[in-house]
Amino acid sequence: MNKKLIALAIAIPLLSAQAFWIYTDAKKRGEKYYWLWGFFGLLNLPSSLIIYLIVTRIIIDRYKKK
Amino acid sequence: MSKKEKLINTLIDKHYNESYDINLLNQSRNQEQVDVNNNTVDKAVDTAGFESKMDGALEKMDLADNIDFNINIDTLKIIEQASQIQAKRNSFKENVCFIITSILILSVFSVVFINIGIKFLIYFQLILFFIMPWSLIPLSKHALRRSENE
Prior knowledge:
The complex is a heterodimer. Chain A is an all-alpha fold. Chain A has three helices and no strands. In chain A, helix 1 runs antiparallel to helix 2. By secondary structure, chain B is an all-alpha fold. Among the domains of chain B are: 64 residues, no CATH class; 33 residues. Chain B contains five helices and no strands. Chains A and B meet through helix 1, helix 2 and helix 3 of A and helix 4 and helix 5 of B.
């Protein structure tokens, strides 16, 4: 039980911070579904952020340059 | 025109130094004195009172004339500032809503994690790792194509 609580105590602030950062960044960039991006940030720790950065910074930015 | 109205017009004419019926004014003042003597002042036109009232009103109007109203107000800028303030407030509210809903989602996850255990977390993360990257990238491309067509 204690291990679970410790794991939660570590994971929850990190996930919240990541989700909020993704949410604010998507909002700033003018993404249409910034709420969904924010919730996507809640799912797991580094990969959500990596996927978000790949999609927004590489795919969308490249598309906009064209 | 009643006698009272005539008297008021005469008083206004007098104030603006225009030609007025002095007899009417004197008559009225005499009548006023008679009314005071007879204790029926409320029935008469109080010429002195009316004159002082009119002077007060005209003084106020002169003051209003002398005020320099700044007409060169940039209304567009004011409207822009107001809309910016409104947008900031809405953004703050939205942020608070997001934080509250994310806390709720995380608390549901935590409850499930505490009750079911690590197995739930492992399966959940495994599914996410396999599905999410492969679904999000084509989904975003599809959304871009759709917006291009629009």
